[in-house]
Amino acid sequence: MRGTEAAVEEALRRLEKTEPQIRAWVHVDADAARAEAGRAAEGPLQGVPFGVKDIIDVTGLPTECGSPLRRGRIAAADAWLVERLRGAGAVPLGKTVTTEFAYFQPGPTRNPHNVHHTPGGSSSGSAAAVAAGVVPLALGSQTAGSLTRPASFCGVAGYVAPVGAWPTTGFTGLSETLDAPGLLAAQVRDLASAVEAVDGTQTEEVGSPRVLLWPGTELADVEPKMLEALRRTGQALAAGELGDQVRTPLLADTHATVMAYEAARALAPEAEHPESLSGHLNQLIQRGRHTPTDEYEAALAVRRAARAEILHLLDDVDALLGPAAPGPAPHGLDATGTPILSRPWQLLGLPVVTVPGHRDLCGMPLGVQLIGHPDRVGRLLGIAQHTERAIKRNAG
User: Fold this and answer.
1) Among 102, 152, 284, 311, which residue has the fewest nearby CB atoms (within 10 Å)?
2) How many angstroms separate the CA atoms of 219 and 285, rounded?
3) Cα separation of 45 and 393, whole Å?
4) Which is catalytic among the residues 67, 146, 193, 278?
5) In the chain, what are the domain boundaries?
């Protein structure tokens, strides 16, 4: 994936055309992007324009986190991930909409496939900007389902790095042991190119992956069309059944405990101004404040044991395949959908790739997610490319 100065101009033209309807961007510095495109470093992403979720710092641009409490805050340095992409020649076009502090309160962004539906959250602007064809690449993050869900709803590919694999330097965090950076792109191949540019991971060619099917029905009312898409994909991959080998309801509850406890501490300064926070965020902070430390430590112990179990399972299989969301993007813009199907895997710090390609009867996207071993990201990306090809062959 390489671009040119013309790629930045085309992105700006596309943005001007789509932004009145999609509202994916909070700040674009067109002159700076043009200037940087002219002197972009040589590299695998030379001249490729990208969007940056507005919890992630870009030198000289605001990082406002979807909150009036951060209005006008200008970043003095690039986040680690932005620096790596710039070093590969990519050009930041601007900042994309995030939900408030990457939690539940929606921003103004609309789903490019139907503007009356949510794009998901919290990486809403990044997913929508890619889906609208403005940029081929955008940065997001995930603490619960903040990247996987909007990727599914907007019909794009998404990658969540293993927790701790990529530094969160220059990110406004929500939960220090759950936050993970990630990427969104139109297709898995472009994701893989970007991941390689960031950390050198090379995608492995995969012929017959060993995959287990996880329908997620013990956690959510997964819609029939999503289950049918999952079934067809599983058949194409000759997937087996995961069964009850992973206690996902326990892990989802444990995730919620850890997230609330850590968010209350990460956002302690903001909590001093409850009138400037949404009800969603005030409730999360209050839950975290009232979670005893011994309950939090017990949750961490559950996570340690479960992670050991899942890594043992992933020594015998290559990936788990499940729904990325319970169904298509819900109608309405006052909520972003549930992250429940991502909570177990984010708790365990595993890499996840969202693979697009399926649609419901109304043409709305349905994404599936592949969950893999943190030490075998290249293989996971290879399986994701294999899966994407299989979906395209069997689209319906």
Assistant:
1) 311
2) 24
3) 29
4) 146
5) 1-243+301-396
Note the pLDDT tens digit of each residue in 313-336: 999 999 999 999 999 999 999 999
Q: Kindly report the CATH class assigned to 1-243+301-396.
A: alpha beta
CA angle 3, 90, 87 (to 5 degrees): 135
342 is known as an active-site residue:
no
Q: Is it true that the peptide bond before 122 is cis, omega within 30 degrees of 0?
A: yes
Q: Is 389 helix (H, G, I), strand (E, B) or coil?
A: helix
Q: How many CB atoms lie within 10 A of CB 72?
A: 7
Tell me 216's DSSP state.
Answer: -
Alpha carbons 296 and 253: distance in angstroms, whole number: 12
| Distance in angstroms (rounded) separating the CA atoms of residues 11 and 61 | 18
Contact of 46 with 77, CB cutoff 8 Å? no
53 a catalytic residue: yes
The string of pLDDT tens digits covering residues 122-144 is 999 999 999 999 999 999 999 99
- Residue 238's identity, in one-letter code, is A
Active-site position among 53, 95, 124, 126:
53
Q: Treating both helix axes as pointing N-terminal to C-terminal, what angle do 30-38 and 5-22 enclose, rounded to 10 degrees?
A: 160
The question of whether 146 is a catalytic residue gets the answer yes
